Amino acid sequence: MAYTSDTRIKNILKDIHIEVIKKLSKIGLGDKLTLRVFDESSEDGRLFANGGLTFKDPNTNAVLGSNDAGWIYNGNPLVIVEGTFGTERGQFGDGQLNRFSHSTGVALNGFIGVTFVPMHGESYSKSGTNQTNVDSKIKIKPAKIHKGLLTGAIAISEKEKGWFLVIDAYAPEVLCKLIIESVKEKEGIKNELQKTIDDIISVMKFHLGSSKYGARSIQLITNLHDSGGKRISSRSRMYTQNYAALTTSTKRDGHGMLGKNLVEIYSGPKSSNYYAIFIRLRKNEIKLLSQRNSKEFQYIFNHPKVNVKCFDDLKFNDPKLKKVLEDIASVNIFQNRQNDLIKAIQTAFNSGEIQII
Amino acid sequence: MALKKTELLNIFNLIPFDLLELKGIGTVIKMEAYSAFDFSAITGANYLVEPIGVTMKGRNETFIHRAVFQEGSYIYSPGLFERNINRSLSEGNSADKLLRLYPDVFSGDKYILINEISTGSNSNIDINVYNEIEKHGFNPKNFVLYKLFESGQSQESIYEYFTSLFYIKKGYIVENQTPWFQQNYLYKGERLNGGIPDFSAFKTDIINPLREFSILSSNEGILINKIPVIKNFITIKKKTDFTVSKVNYDLIIGEVKSDNSSIDQAIRQMNKYSNVELANKIYSIIPNCKNNGSENFGEFYLDQNILKINESKKSLMVNSVSQQIDRDWINVNVKLNLLGNANFNLLMQYLINKYGLTKDEIKSFHLIDFAMNISIPELIKII
């Protein structure tokens, strides 16, 4: 068996629990809290009500991602944590969104969900940069927390009844304090829960900086029109995967797609509808996807805020653009990048040259 | 093949470990703290030193991939040592820290309690078992809880444990969280796909100084997870009568399945491992598979609850250049693990002096560079 983040995370969370109990015991609250944690992650996937660490989206009833450990007060979830060391193990980009749904599920149900991850990790990599005064076999690539993850987490915390907090895995004392203050708040004694949460969100905002979600994306659509020329969405996305890529690649791809959807649903303007436009899929393929027993696809197809569209739902003012897109239906665009074409399609969507029928 | 509690107890008894009958608790396996550490670190079994249960598994992570598969680059990950918020090096699971947090892990007799988990039941039973032990007048801190899933789930690690005992007796360093490569490796013009071995046992010339300083006994090996905390079990001292012996690089890897029905998958995996021409021997470790059908791979299996071994008919192709790169990487890995025994403040002082930096400027890569360039006798001075 390989080293996984899971065992390391669970060991750290147990160490935190022991510290929390010590501190709570000093103020007579040591018996108020339990930690639900499993040795093997296979049991994390049970619903919380069934003794597990997973939650359903109350809007869709779809099961979202599982968590690593949960602190429980009076039988109810208090602080539920999903941890990952992805940012120090080569996860530089959208892969980080794979886990976005995990804390989302907690927050949508009104509890405190925490994603525990190094905000600024360092991955050792053969394609990294050499460091001063050390052996040339040591090369490092920095990996910062995905801005989309922070954007979505802040949006969910602002709009929903629970909290989606991102805490630096290098600052376990912050998680420790959050749990202790949560217990005090439940006990109705003087506490700093709100201040602790505000401080955490303030750190999240600091790491987000002035970044605007999707500013550099060539797939995000900010101005989507229907065939009558009416603007129908200011936050939508075109997905460029073809059917083969969506059905034969690893499950993590679907995972990432779900994360991206969730980030964009919650971080977009509340008044805007969200369209997930699979520009290389046909109606029959969409139908087949909707019938797949995959958590990710089921979520996207059943979410009341997500409108799934495909190539057959599009009206092109420029028949040449339509033809070019049709011609790359079976091309592996991860190997043969089509960035110029995708950019042209994005421009055409935003300018109303491509519309939703 | 789902192992039953009675069979498992019988295997332990035949190794032999003592079985004890504790009133109200049932049959337990008695081990010294030194042996129990290996059991927990391999299987993930929880010491009940705290009601939540804590394991010694997964606490000594250093390298997650072998350098030979990464164009010689050292792919490190924190775990044994950690990072702080400034990304400076910080104490992780050092010998001193674990002794401070969990002193009972390192002394006295331990009792391995096997608890069967029926299919569909939750396995987070540690607190209940802790209370039950206390109720019957025993000290839970002396118990290690092993959860045996009736479905057969997660039983691979128990076979990794038995195979480890076999190779430790033969003088090898063993591990069941084997760094290998992720995704693929370009070798001889061909892109080879991955898969990660469940088990490995290895020897390099670093065995000599480890024996010289009593970290290894004169003929036994060690579980790599134990190296970072070895000073909590033994006194590290130089032997006066030590003679250096020739130790050639030797790498043995194992693919574990809990049942013969997964043999095809095991063979596919072992073929992948052999394609990179690094391991000297590869074995299937499957309790009910005496013959895996391959001439290239040997077998570990259970016969009348005793672990048996069959050698392969053919030798594997090995690449001596790859083995040399791997030997150097293994030696750095062992030295990093040994640094877990260092007093962390003293270690930091060494790093500060060597690199002429402040404490906050010392990063994990300084530690790796340090381990690459220090000899074992020099390293021992910090411990």
Provide the descriptors you would attach to this structure in a database record.
heterodimer, A: 357 residues, alpha/beta, five-stranded mixed sheet, four-stranded mixed sheet, 11 helices, B: 383 residues, alpha+beta, GMP Synthetase, Chain A, domain 3, 2 domains, seven-stranded mixed sheet, 18 strands, 31% helix, 21% strand, globular
Structural overview:
The complex is a heterodimer of chains A (357) and B (383). Chain A has a five-stranded mixed beta sheet with strand order 1-4-5-6-9, sandwiched between helices. Chain A is of the alpha/beta class and 357 residues long. By secondary structure, chain B is an alpha+beta fold. Chain B has two domains: 100 residues, GMP Synthetase, Chain A, domain 3; 279 residues, no CATH class. Helices cover 31% and strands 21% of the residues of chain B. Chain B is built from eleven helices and 18 strands. In chain B, a hairpin with a 5-residue loop joins strand 6 and strand 7. In chain B, helix 2 crosses helix 5 and helix 8 crosses helix 10. The N and C termini of chain B lie far apart (45 Å). The model of chain B has no long low-confidence stretch (mean pLDDT 96). The chains are: A alpha/beta (357), B alpha+beta (383). Chains A and B meet through helix 1, strand 1 and strand 7 of A and strand 5, helix 5 and helix 10 of B.
How are the elements arranged and paired?
The complex is a heterodimer of chains A (357) and B (383).
Chain A: H1 5-26, E1 33-37, E2 54-56, E3 63-66, E4 69-73, E5 76-83, H2 100-108, E6 112-117, E7 120-130, E8 139-144, H3 147-159, E9 163-168, H4 172-187, H5 193-208, E10 220-221, E11 224-225, E12 231-233, E13 236-239, H6 243-248, H7 251-267, E14 274-278, H8 283-291, H9 295-302, E15 306-310, E16 314-316, H10 319-327, H11 339-351, E17 354-356
Parallel strand pairs in A: 5-6, 6-9, 13-14, 14-15
Antiparallel strand pairs in A: 1-4, 2-3, 4-5, 7-8, 10-13, 11-12, 16-17
Helix pairs in contact in A: 1-4, 2-3, 3-5, 3-7, 4-5, 7-9
Chain B: H1 5-14, E1 18-22, E2 26-32, H2 33-43, E3 46-47, E4 63-65, E5 75-76, E6 81-83, E7 89-91, H3 95-101, E8 109-117, H4 126-135, E9 143-149, H5 156-169, E10 173-175, E11 184-187, E12 190-193, E13 199-203, H6 207-212, E14 222-223, E15 250-256, H7 263-275, E16 281-285, E17 298-303, E18 306-310, H8 320-338, H9 344-355, H10 364-373, H11 376-380
Parallel strand pairs in B: 8-9, 10-14, 15-16, 16-17
Antiparallel strand pairs in B: 1-2, 2-8, 3-9, 4-5, 6-7, 10-13, 11-12, 13-15, 17-18
Helix pairs in contact in B: 2-5, 8-10
